[in-house]
Design goal:
Layout (H helix, E strand, L loop, with lengths): L6 E4 L3 H13 L3 E5 L13 E3 L3 H10 L4 H8 E7 L9 E6 L1 H13 L4 E5 L2 E7 L2 E7 L4 E3 L3 E3 L8 E4 L2 E4 L11 H7 L5 E12 L9 E3 L22 E5 L2 H9 L22 H7 L7 E6 L6 E8 L4 H8 L10 E3 L2 E7 L17 E3 L9 H19 L13 H12 L23 H10 L7 H23 L1 E2 L1 H10 L9 E2 H5 L6 H7 L1 H8 L3 H12 L1 H18 L17 H10 L4 H5 L6 H10 L3
Parallel strand pairs: 1-2, 1-10, 2-6, 10-20
Antiparallel strand pairs: 3-5, 4-5, 7-8, 8-9, 11-12, 11-19, 13-17, 13-18, 13-19, 14-15, 15-16, 16-17, 21-22
Length: 621
Amino acid sequence: MFPEYDVIVVGAGHAGCEAAVAAANMGSRVLLATMNMNTIAQMSCNPAMGGVAKGQIVREIDALGGYSAIVTDHTMIQFRMLNKSKGPAMWSPRAQSDRMLFAAKWRHMLEQNEHIDFWQEMITGIVVKNGVVKGVRTGIGLEIPGKSVILTNGTFLNGIIHIGEKKFGGGRAGERASTGITEQLIELGFEAGRMKTGTPARVDGRSLDWNAMEEQPGDDEVSGFSYMDTPKPEKQVPCHITYTNSAVHEVLKEGFHKSPMFNGRIRGLGPRYCPSIEDKINRFADKDQHQLFVEPEGWNTCEIYVNGFSSSLPEDVQYRALRKIRGFENAKMFRPGYAIEYDYFPPVQLQLSLETKLIKNLFFAGQINGTTGYEEAGSQGLMAGINAHLAIHDREPFILKRSEAYIGVLIDDLVNKGTNEPYRMFTSRAEYRILLRQDNADMRLTPLVAKLGMNHLEERVQRVQKKEEDVKAVKRFLENTSVLPEEVNGYLNTKNSSPLKQKVKLGSVLGRPNIFLNELRATLPDVDQQLAKMDQEAAKIAEINMKYAGYISKEQEMVDKMNRLESVKLKSDIDYHKLVSLSSEAREKLTQIKPMTIGQASRISGVSPSDVSVLLVHMGR
């Protein structure tokens, strides 16, 4: 009935979708298995992509040939570039999407790929022979053969939904949990744990007083996410901001004794940086109010997402508390918020390729690895899809360094440090974030992935080459164009910057703090006229590269130093317990994680610099 697939992807959320298209575009024959074809690429929580650090990840997914950015651009209803008041390393794109259009566009793009087949049924186990995965087993007892399997089960593995004192099995509102896989993996020797996440109530926008809230419009300039030519909305839908208050808090506290978080019914840890409203009130008792973002779910729906009001309290408590919020006095609730508890597998059990250490050709991606967020999940799915294809063809895995991508930071953190709470990416986690900006992801990553043989990257490669040439052209122009004191001193005075005493190159003026190219162009008509003929995106990148040249150079020196450690390979069969000069913790962690290089070993929690020195001596260095 079934052919032998090259790659079987279990789960069609953000990780599963990216895994399927990545493997298919590498040339693999892919089966995407899901319990419900109508919820492919469902935005289970907030209908938004990007945000701080997450926006960089979406752009990296795009640069690597993934589809998340393209789908977002096609379906966005609002776009904002966050952190524009800070340095360019912090700039992060974010878009609000139409929830239904987003899922529909993803499904359409998947169905257009002739290498992808679909199967709608619960997958209850994997087929393993001699330590190698050979396929999957379905709920009705079918065995589907596959050379590799990627598990992207999201919150469905033994999922339990909590609303106050009520609890019932489910992987998402209205959908049943997935069973069987956890139990089998534990029998095979895997360690499992429990985590929780949550989502807020959805309300009827027709019942809200929008005039009582602060409007938050989108940016005038919509750059979008994809580096390809994608459509941008001609108009945008505004979001709004309102706040909780002491009356809201008092109502919520009435239900604390029925909260599954506080009475011990939920064992899993929730996301530290996206806590429920009851958790915020409990942890930040000194705060009189908490900000709420009131976000539309699409162009043609009145359904509203109350961002910041995630809750697992009883539905009557949620309803009464919502009506105490300014603008929500007459709110009608579509459905209450809920918490969901689910199984995950600590990611220290994975290699950097996301292949499991116990079972060959078996990969994990997404929330099964303890992450939270569509963006983190999608990036893992993409990498797992690429590496599953490479693995079945006996090719070296594709692994991104921390200095090459936020995706590299994410996977390196998971594999080397593990996590016991939902992992979320932040710019602060990336030590080379000046190099890993959202504007240069295509120049960083597209050439790397193009070498692997993806069959749809030719136009992207040409675009990157053109972009690099354009950046160099702008840089040459700025370095070779001189300006006179009388041309710019008036502007410099307004910025409290020392006036020029002689003719200098434009690039040196641009290197000063608080001096910006768009403002200089306004005072220099001839320069503006010349730059207007050049690519404007390239002009922005050239400006950043020149203004922050010293910082970029310093980070690159750090990267080069670390790369020397990355070049020292470690054998997989080293018996660390025999290296008595290592600390006992280092012996334990190195044995568990089995790092591939000295560089990776140095980033494992519990491995000290002196332990690294012992390893270098052992390797003859």
